[in-house]
Amino acid sequence: MFTKNEMEMAFKETDMLFDSHAHFDDERFDSDRDEIILNANKNGVSYILNAASDMESAKMSIALSKKFHFLYAAVGVHPHNVSNLGEGVLSELVELARNSKVVAIGEIGLDYYYDFSPKDVQQEWFGRQINLARELKLPVIIHNRDAHEDTMRLIKSEKAREVGGVLHCYSGSVEMAKEVLEHNLYISVGGPVTFKNAKKTIEVVKYVPLDRLLIETDCPYLTPEPYRGKRNDSSFVRLVAEKIAEIKGISYDEAAFATLNNAKTLFKIE
Ligand SMILES: [Zn+2]
Ligand SMILES: [Zn+2]
User: How many whole angstroms from 22 Cα to the centroid of ligand 1?
Assistant: First the structure.
């Protein structure tokens, strides 16, 4: 038998993490998707937000959200995949966003590192999808790689602050973080904060107030240390929470609860 206190502790242990950015629609989960999702939930990941990368993945994200009560969906088109989008995409996204488990537009943004789509096309669709989010009153999930200046410019010109959102897997400076926070956006960190070369991200985590921080895995990518190189999944978000606690000098419980509550607030989950 457990005492009441022990029960409460056990409950806390199993109900406190929010993985705010996952890609369980990815083909790397084809052989064991359901099992891995359920296992993460059993191991204390009480919420997962699955981010879309294209229209197919948006539909799959919604299908997963219908299957698992603790999994929510975002719909949107990643900058890698915007080069051949037709006009009909926006109305299709509106249609998909009607689903009650869709809580954000994403992931959208700019990626100048891989440059899979022409920069001007990336900018056009980033802007259009921010506007769509405003129309639908949904927060945005923003991807930015090596495009800090243009990302901030479009956040401002397209008034992303009206709906808020998050810069996921944040890789910018403390100076940029200040601007991001001023524009009603949260900052999310994932596995890279545990890497050896994480100095800059650690400075950012120190700087960002605890009530503006989210955690994520971006799985199957970016597995935290000491499992770097293996396939990532939501259960590894615990390692990110541990690192946040260490950097901020707070308890693990506090880091987990704060980031969970922040995500629930941003995505308006009861
Ligand atoms: Zn991303
Ligand atoms: Zn992602």
Answer: 10
